[in-house]
Write a sequence for this structure.
């Protein structure tokens, strides 16, 4: 795939609320079959940018294009369901439009088939994430948007979940846009890292981003050491490798971790 | 059975049937205080209806809806917490309603009837109004059931999956305004929320699916109407509060049952 399809592209996208600029002229592109990881410290605007990309909130300037009729599977960060709503996993997945056979397939694929009749409120963090991923899969997505997918999952479970996401992208040929503030485990399978702190500090292949001064300033040198352990998992290089862009921090407020 | 009691029963059962499923959404979406605010603003609708000489039910529904939309608009500001905004609107509209009614028709209006219900003076026209509106609301709930559940589970997820979240949410408010308008005759503006919340909360302890919970809430509401009207008939209790106490009694009884998931 020399020219993979562009699924979603934001150019110079800004989100301003009140007099605060939450996202400042961000560029971001997701191709089919590619994993793009959006990282940044808390309050960097990661979720805001993704919400704007999904049409959940309006943006103030820039432009946003996506493949016509793009099917998006979205996995929100958290699921807050009032305990007063009696809802099984099966029913929750049916709400997304899934037929019984498809629901079983999706749950099996995410390793959660045994949860079918469970009530949602009784699930652990890791189980909830697998059920949410199954709901995203039921859309037969061309693009998976995952907001902190391993939140509340133990370390072993995190690695397994990331491995699953990686397999799914190959199986479905879908693009994946991932939000994470957890760096070292994500890096292994990511094609492009976009580092956000209001504006985009740097982006490119993980190996290059981690050497970028803007990245080091944001996350410190300890992060670099952790990631180094995992970079050997990469057995191939991508076009994006050569395109490492760096913006200067000329804002009045310095970035803080 | 005397005719006034028969009419009261017909009115109460009609309201109980529709407030069951709607009350479930109020509980699931944590709209108890929101419902209260809409109900309190009903008195403003009454005033409006008297002033403009239009049907009180329509005026009340319109007034409630107006308050709900105002609240949604205010929430966008995000300066004050929602419960603070609700507190302001709820009591201001109630106070304004009380003042306005006393100004436009001093002594002419049965204020207690509006505040606590006047089910024993139900007319045939009231019963017809309640059942027509009730059936319409139930039909709308059935039609919108899945999108309503979807936005209750997760609004962003529903939006990404193509559900028109704002339209569905506005429809729910409209339905709630309509139910408040018809329930006012039965329990009055101060007690309407009880008829929405308590049967639904009771049903939660017995139900395993959303649909079971909605049906059970209707049944529990109906039971409370019968119990309340009996109390009113035999011991001369005020009917509206007696019906609310009926729901409370079933709720307390349900606490004896071990909680299901």
């Amino acid at each position: 795939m020399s020219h993979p399809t562009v699924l979603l592209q934001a150019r110079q996208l800004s989100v301003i609320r009140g007099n605060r600029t939450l996202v400042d002229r961000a560029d971001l592109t997701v191709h089919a079959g590619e994993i793009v990881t959006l990282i940044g410290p808390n309050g960097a605007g990661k979720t805001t940018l993704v919400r704007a990309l999904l049409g959940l909130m309006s943006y103030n300037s820039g432009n946003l294009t996506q493949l016509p009729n793009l099917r998006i599977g979205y996995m929100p960060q958290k699921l807050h369901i009032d305990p007063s709503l009696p809802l099984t996993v099966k029913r929750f997945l049916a709400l997304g439009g899934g037929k019984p056979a498809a629901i079983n397939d999706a749950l099996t694929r995410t390793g959660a088939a045994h949860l079918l009749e469970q009530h949602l409120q009784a699930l652990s963090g890791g189980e909830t994430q697998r059920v949410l991923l199954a709901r995203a899969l039921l859309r037969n997505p061309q693009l998976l948007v995952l907001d902190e997918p391993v939140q509340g999952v133990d370390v072993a479970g995190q690695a397994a979940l990331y491995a699953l996401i990686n397999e799914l992208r190959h199986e479905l040929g879908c693009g994946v846009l991932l939000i994470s503030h957890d760096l070292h485990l994500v890096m292994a399978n990511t094609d492009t890292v976009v580092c956000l702190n209001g504006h985009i500090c740097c982006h490119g292949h993980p190996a290059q981003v981690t050497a970028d001064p803007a990245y080091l300033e944001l996350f410190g040198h300890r992060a670099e050491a952790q990631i180094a352990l995992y970079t050997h998992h990469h057995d191939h290089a991508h076009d994006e490798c050569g395109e490492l862009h760096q913006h200067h921090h000329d804002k009045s407020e310095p970035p803080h971790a | 059975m005397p005719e006034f009691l028969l009419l009261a029963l017909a009115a109460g059962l009609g309201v109980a049937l529709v407030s069951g499923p709607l009350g479930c959404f109020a509980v699931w979406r944590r709209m108890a205080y929101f419902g209260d605010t809409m109900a309190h603003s009903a008195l403003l609708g009454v005033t409006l209806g008297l002033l403009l000489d239009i049907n009180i039910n329509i005026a009340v529904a319109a007034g409630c809806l107006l308050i709900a939309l105002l609240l949604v608009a205010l929430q966008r500001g995000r300066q004050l917490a929602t419960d603070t905004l609700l507190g302001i609107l709820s009591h201001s509209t109630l106070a304004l309603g009380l003042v306005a009614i006393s100004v436009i028709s001093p002594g002419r209006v049965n204020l207690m009837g509006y505040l606590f219900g006047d089910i024993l003076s139900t007319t045939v026209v009231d019963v017809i109004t309640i059942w027509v509106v009730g059936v319409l609301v139930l039909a709308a709930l059935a039609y919108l059931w899945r999108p309503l559940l979807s936005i209750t589970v997760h609004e962003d997820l529903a939006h990404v999956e193509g559900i028109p979240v704002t339209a569905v949410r506005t429809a729910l408010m409209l339905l709630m305004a309509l139910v408040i308008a018809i329930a006012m005759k039965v329990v009055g503006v101060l007690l309407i929320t009880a008829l929405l919340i308590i049967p639904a909360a009771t049903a939660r302890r017995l139900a395993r699916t959303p649909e079971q919970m909605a049906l059970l809430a209707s049944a529990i509401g109906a039971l409370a109407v019968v119990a309340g009207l009996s109390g009113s008939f035999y011991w001369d209790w005020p009917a509206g509060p007696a019906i609310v106490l009926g729901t409370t009694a079933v709720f307390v009884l349900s606490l004896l049952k071990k909680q299901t998931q």
